[in-house]
Amino acid sequence: MWKSIGEVGVDDYVNAGLSLEEAKRFDEVVRDVISKVEGSDPREQWKALVGSSELRPSHPYSLHQLVYYSVYSNWDDSLHGPPLYWFPSLTESKSTNLGRLMETHCPRLLGSSYNNPIESFGLFREFSLQHPDVYWSIVLDELSLAFFSCPRCILDTTDKSKPGGTWLPGAVLNIAECCLLPSSHPRKEDDSVAVVWRDEGSDDDDDSHVNRMTLKELREQVMMVAKALAGVFAKGDTVAIDMPMTVNAVIIYLAIVLAGCIVVSIADSFAAKEIATRLRVSKAKGIFTQVSFPAFYVFCLSFTLSDSVFILFGLHSQDYIFRGGRRFPLYSRVVEAAPSKVIVLPATGTELGVQLREQDLSWNDFLSNAKNHPRGVYYFCPAYQPVDAMINILFSSGTTGEPKAIPWTQLSPIRSACDGWAHVDIQPGDTYCWPTNLGWVMGPTLIFSCFLAGATLALYHGSPLGRGFGKFVQDAGVTVLGTVPSLVKTWKSTKCMEGLDWSKIKSYATTGEASNVDDDLWISSKSGYKPVIECCGGTELSSSYIIGCPLQPQAFGAFSTPSMTTGIVILDENGFPFPGDDKPCSGEIALFPRYLGATDRLLNADHDAVYFKGMPFYKGMRLRRHGDIVKRTVGGYYTVQGRADDTMNLGGIKTSSIEIERVCDNADQCVSETAAISVAPRDGGPEMLAILVVLKKGFKKKPEELKNMFSRAIQRDLNPLFKVSIVKIVPEFPRTASNKLLRRVLRDEMKQELSVWSRI
Known about the structure:
alpha/beta; Rossmann fold; 4 domains; nine-stranded mixed beta sheet; five-stranded mixed beta sheet; 35 strands; 32% helix; 21% strand; globular
């Protein structure tokens, strides 16, 4: 139990890491600040302490922890909602994108009921839900959108076969071109810095050594690659990318879209079987991949499978990438997915540094179409397409063994960028960094959120787990830092970011898994308590359905609002909506079907069956299924409790129980069957993978042996980033009358056991 802040004394501050003299002074400051707060509201006490600037990033984290938990020691969430740690100021709120928009338009839209961006945010969000055409017509003008043909309207609902309606009908554009063109609104010029990056281990101690690329330079590189692509592929071809998130990966991604081809996103952590599955499902005609390690030669590989040409970036003599200090093979995994024909890219100059085989081609031969074009190497006419044309295929695991192939149209990046503009407040002049990968939804989201809002994209070519990444955040002047909770937990536990200056960060964003309050407290404290914008959505939504907002007070590990124009309903255990939109409750989330950017098709599954079949009607609309279990708290905040189905979230990567079990069942002859479930720690945070196993008769194994065996099999055959936390041997599994495995029962039993263990 924590003491109340009034009971904390000098000895406590010394135990938290301060010297005796520092502790005496700090105790005086705390008592003076608290004494000036009217009443005893912990929120006002915390607000005053943070506002005093006495609780500094340089202080030991144990001190921050002591003060926060002592201020809120007697707080009752059930009566007051989650404790708040960040409060928007009226002046700052008016300089945010959304606040500026509200100050300009809300006096007309809301009339005399409008006060200011903070007090009237809820009213305006409800207006956006009721009048999405008005909201989107205003916000679309705020982005770098250049329509070849303008839309006839915002939303057409005449086609009753489309529950979500038709968005921006008649619009024709190339969304990659929109990213690359200068624009006065937002302010984006040819000499604006578009991308900054640093290679891992490259001059980490030199503050000035951050590579920079202007918008004009980025456009020229993208056009050159697009021209080369057009000489190999046809418009509409699917071309995969299996690369770390480097500046070259971004160039290739935009070039594929600019050329009118379709990106197939594959995470560079996948095993060969998973790569092969995605290539097959997407019918990929090519694949880019890269082994990223600056000390060695980089080269490009191409291979052919039937009529498909596969283009690969690899590494001479060293086939691996680094993740968290470990080596993962990449090129060999892609080759295992299909036979190879090689095109080699030199590390520098024109010398390849490798002996080519007879069937191999040089990178210069691949680029010859671009170099020999009469209008110059940097000219390329974009492929203009309807707004609902497919530009990207991403994958999300469902409850079956095969991942769902989710198509992104040009509407998807528009929605991603609009939500980043409104809720994360991405502006011209911002430097936006989020360690991610093009294989996950945050990769494309990061690209479009930056370039359509006029911000600078910051990329670290290496592992984000260590101090080198934090040093890059400091040196690049990152103003918005995206994370996943497990990454923050690593930074906090290793203390690798101590002594770095993150004062330029104005906000954080986090997604992928449940946040731990203590970890959010740590990262917010590193920049003087800036807000951590929690985001929860889905690949098929291209955005977040619940999220934070810089116009609202924020609570650690909680979402403060549904996103703009998004309608949500929480269903009870019988599938009926809970009455009221602000009452505390918990249940499965369902979405209003009219959701700009959400999918209206799947490539390898029945879209209607997945998202609409069996869903209830609400206010005349058939609701859209999402599958998260969400709790709405007192005060209107939200927390995510897990998945309604058997999909689990491991380290920010969604996968199904069946995929895990398929690998574990074949891990050893002693295994009869397994059940994979995920459980959240009692104190919150990322889900842990638990494997329950039934052994064959006559076999004896210890849980630790099985844990190591399952971990090796999963990392080899599924994903090297997955970690088995718990293994339990059971005599049998609970099942339904039709013999279906009751994973929910197992999950509840494991949660109960963990709760008991935590009290021992």
